[in-house]
Amino acid sequence: MRETGKTKTNTGHRARRRLSTACACALWALLCCLMMTTACAADAGEKATREFFAMDTYISLSAYGPDAEAGLDAAEEEIHRLEAVLTTESEDSEVGRLNAEGTGVLGEDGIALMRKALMVHDMTDGAFDITVYPLMRLWGFPSKMYYVPTDEEIAEKLPLVGSEQITFDEESGETAFSKTKMAIDFGGIAKGYASAKAVQKLREAGISSALVNLGGNVQALGGKPGGKPFRVAIENPEEDGAYLGILAVTDLAVITSGDYERFFEKDGRIYHHILDPATGRPAESGLHSVTVVCSDGVMADALSTAIFVMGEEKAAAFWRENSPAFQMVLLAEDGTLFVTEGLKDIFETDREITWISTDA
Ligand code: ADP
Ligand code: MG
């Protein structure tokens, strides 16, 4: 009996052990399952999106992972903060005050933007120039009270253009214009800066997969969950809703400047918002749109504006000097699609491509 008892007891023990083993297995399986689900949520699931209007453009953000919502909150807040800092027309903003007084002290963002703007001005032989602002005003772009100025009016404002007339101390942020009535505008670089800062906020929130889109200017943080690249379409300005091609990107900015984004029509002519600093008129370089692909979003934005002013030939020479720092897709007015060879593996299109290669 004892034995039996013992046996019973033993049997009872074994049964309990089997039960607890089964329980442990079930628990383990459940735990594994939970862990997998959580991993999936962190990896693939939990896509959060956000859409709003700021910086005069339609913005959409998406992020993946359990911290996605918090990351989007931080990114959205950052974009609104920058909008207030960078607004050109309000005299309460840093840039507004500088424009009104001709002298001022820039804060951290202003310093970062000014450094890049002056650097790209030098690199591009002045094709990128933030001092075109008095001419932007003359053409009525900021106020949307469009006007075609006379040759005399343009000639009068042209001496105010030229970034070499800015004195800037990048340590203190002290900035001064050498002529009264000079004014600057970070519009050609602001969206790239805002998207780079939004990506930084997302990264700080622990996110490793996100896409920031400021009116078609896209910056990818990492790739899609699971490791595949994000697929970013380049708009076709010739046809509503169509695209020129698709770029597969990971950790890259894709930024486009074109003559179709902001323009007005007068007496059958189109006047768009990218000015050639040399002439004070909308650039007529034979290009319809310029897309720059670069890991630095601020650089991509400044370069897309500058390359639009340069035109295809100068842009190709400029790319050869700087390759592989950035890549580009150019749509010419005659419909030719120029693509730099660094995009061979990541650009997909049905159109015929004219490749730009390192050997001219
Ligand atoms: P968008 O802002 O539409 O994406 P861009 O990045 O090309 O397009 O910026 C155009 C803006 O840049 C203009 O609205 C104006 O504020 C400013 N800008 C225009 N011409 C120039 C130029 N040559 N260099 C620097 N900034 C410019
Ligand atoms: Mg730009």
In short:
With 360 residues, the protein is α+β, with helices and mostly antiparallel strands. It has helices at residues 2-43, 68-86, 94-101, 108-123, 133-138, 151-157, 190-204, 297-310, 312-322, and strands spanning 48-54, 57-63, 103-105, 166-168, 174-177, 210-214, 217-221, 230-235, 243-249, 253-258, 263-266, 269-272, 275-276, 281-282, 287-294, 327-332, 337-340, 347-348, 354-356.
CA distance, first residue to last residue: 99 Å
Characterize the largest beta sheet: strand count, sense, and whether it forms a barrel: 9 strands, mixed
CATH topology of the largest domain: T-fold
What's the overall geometry?
globular
Structural class: alpha+beta
What is the CATH superfamily classification of the largest domain?
Answer: ApbE-like domains
Describe it.
The protein is an alpha+beta fold. The protein has 2 domains: 4-84 and 191-265 and 281-356, Roll (T-fold); 89-185, Orthogonal Bundle (T-fold), CATH 1.10.3980.10. It is built from 9 helices and 19 strands. The strands form 5 sheets. A 9-stranded mixed beta sheet has the order 1-2-6-7-10-15-16-17-19, covered by helices on one side. Strands 3-5-4 form a 3-stranded antiparallel beta sheet, with helices on one face. A 3-stranded antiparallel beta sheet has the order 8-9-18, with no helix packed on it. Helix 4 (108-123) runs parallel beside helix 8 (297-310). The radius of gyration is 27 Å and the shape is globular. Mean pLDDT is 88; it is low at 1-44. Adenosine-5'-diphosphate binds next to helix 8. Adenosine-5'-diphosphate (ADP) binds next to helix 8.
